[in-house]
Design a protein that fits this description.
Layout (H helix, E strand, L loop, with lengths): L1 H7 L2 H19 L12 H14 L27 H10 L5 H11 L9 H37 L2
Helix pairs in contact: 5-6
């Protein structure tokens, strides 16, 4: 009884049946609906399986959609007019958190900024810190190169 049930519910034959049904539906949906899809034998389907997995999913309904990044901003930058002030604050206190800077902005410009803009300010502060860190690293590397050059000039 169990063997009979296994034969009825063999996953490979079910996959074959599903693929044939999909092929038939695709043919019916095509502009030339008079053509009938040719049925592929189970043995031929099984022999083609080792190659099919290398191709990946070939049906267009299962193709992954290309993700495109937006190159432009979707809304105007809320910190454009006050970014110079924020930079001054960051130069005075480089370890200041974006939430603290936003609190200062909200106190200085009431009704202009809200807590919902915190994440935007965090991104901008992070970008600023990356730029400053690169400047420090490259400046120290250039300085060490200058020191080596100066030492080589002094030694006989």
């Amino acid at each position: 009884m169990l063997r009979d049930s296994r034969a009825e519910h063999d996953p490979v034959s079910l996959l074959h049946t599903i693929r044939e049904a999909q092929s038939a539906l695709a043919t019916i949906n095509a502009t030339d609906s008079a053509s009938v899809p040719q049925s592929e034998s189970l043995e031929r389907f099984l022999s083609s399986l080792p190659e099919l997995w290398r191709q990946g999913e070939v049906r267009p309904t299962h193709a992954p959609k290309k993700k495109t990044r937006r190159g432009q901003r979707t809304r105007p930058d809320p910190f454009e007019g006050v970014w110079c002030e924020i930079l001054d604050w960051l130069q005075q206190h480089p370890d200041a958190k974006a939430a603290e800077l936003l609190d200062r902005l909200m106190a200085r410009y009431p009704n202009r900024y809200s807590r919902r803009q915190r994440r935007t300010l965090q991104r901008r502060v992070r970008q600023w810190r990356i730029v400053v860190a690169k400047q420090l690293v490259y400046a120290s590397a250039e300085q060490s190169e200058m020191d080596e050059v100066d030492l080589s000039d002094i030694t006989p």
